[in-house]
Specification:
With about 210 residues, the chain is mainly beta. It has two helices and 13 strands; from the N terminus they run ββαβββαββββββββ. It has one domain: Jelly Rolls (Sandwich). A seven-stranded antiparallel sheet has the order 1-2-11-8-13-6-3, with helices on one face. Strands 7-12-9-10 form a four-stranded antiparallel sheet, with no helix packed on it. Strands 4-5 form a two-stranded antiparallel ribbon. Bound molecules: succinic acid and fe (ii) ion (FE2).
C-alpha cells in the first residue's frame, strides 16, 4: 500500500469478498472533487432514461474508456458520450490510484478499471436495487467511493428478494465487492436532506468497473 492510504483501513466486512473501507478516500477527497468538476465540465451530468421509459433520479456522467449509458434501447457501455459524440474524459491518475489501492486493500491485487460511473444524488434521490451486469468481467471488483452527503447503501444477495443489510456510508467511505460477491444486488435509499458545501449539497459517488 502507498503511504497515502496506509493505516486508514478501518473495515466492515459485507461478505467473503466484499467490505467497506471506512474513510479510505479521505486523503484524496479534495482532489477527487476537483477532478469530478473537470469531468462534469466536459461531460455534463444528465438524468438518463431507463428502457422502461422512467427518468432516473440519480444524475450521471462517466470517465474512462467506457461509459455506462441507458436509453429506450437498453443499458450498455459506450466509448463516446452520446450527448457530444466525444470520447468520455480519461480516468484521472488519482482515480486509478485510489481504485487500485482500495481493491488491493480488499484482496484484489492488480485492479485496473476501464470505466468510472459518476453518480450525483440530490437529497431525496434513490437508486433501486440492481445488479451490475453490463460488464464482461463478472469477477473483478466494483469499487464505490462516497463523497458529500451521507446515505444508506443496501447490500443484498444474488436474488432480488434476498434480505439486504443497511450500510451507512459517509464522505470518504469506499465499498468494494468482487469475486463471489460481485453479482450481489445493491442500491441506495433516498438521500436524506442535508447541507454539504463540498459537493454543492449532493452525494457524489464514483463506481469503478472493469468492463472488458
Ligand atoms: C451504483 O450502484 O452504481 C452506485 C452505488 C452508490 O451510489 O453507492
Ligand atoms: Fe450498481
Amino acid at each position: 500500500m502507498s503511504d497515502l492510504f496506509a493505516g486508514l483501513a478501518q473495515r466492515t466486512p459485507l461478505g467473503a469478498q466484499a467490505c467497506v473501507l471506512h474513510g479510505f478516500a479521505l486523503p484524496v477527497a479534495e482532489e477527487l472533487l476537483a477532478a469530478i468538476k473537470a469531468i462534469a465540465a466536459a461531460a455534463p451530468f444528465r438524468h438518463l432514461v431507463t428502457p422502461g421509459g422512467h427518468v432516473m433520479q440519480v444524475a450521471m456522467t462517466n470517465c474512462g474508456t467506457f461509459g455506462w449509458c441507458s436509453d429506450r434501447r437498453g443499458y450498455r457501455y459506450e466509448r463516446c458520450d452520446p450527448a457530444s459524440g466525444q470520447p468520455w474524459p480519461p480516468l484521472p491518475e488519482a482515480f486509478l490510484q485510489l481504485a487500485r489501492e482500495a481493491a488491493a486493500e480488499a484482496g484484489f491485487a492488480g485492479y485496473v478499471p476501464d470505466a468510472c460511473l459518476v453518480n450525483r444524488y440530490a437529497p431525496g434521490a434513490r437508486l433501486s436495487l440492481h445488479q451490475d451486469r453490463d460488464e464482461d468481467d463478472r469477477v473483478a471488483p466494483i469499487v464505490s467511493v462516497s463523497l458529500g452527503l451521507p446515505a444508506t447503501f443496501l447490500f443484498g444477495g444474488h436474488v432480488r428478494g434476498d434480505r439486504t443489510v443497511r450500510v451507512p456510508l459517509a464522505h470518504g467511505d469506499v465499498v468494494v465487492w468482487g469475486g463471489v460477491d460481485r453479482m450481489r444486488f445493491h442500491g441506495v435509499l433516498p438521500v436524506p436532506p442535508g447541507r454539504d458545501p463540498r459537493t454543492g449539497g449532493a452525494r457524489l459517488n464514483l463506481t469503478f468497473r472493469k468492463v472488458r
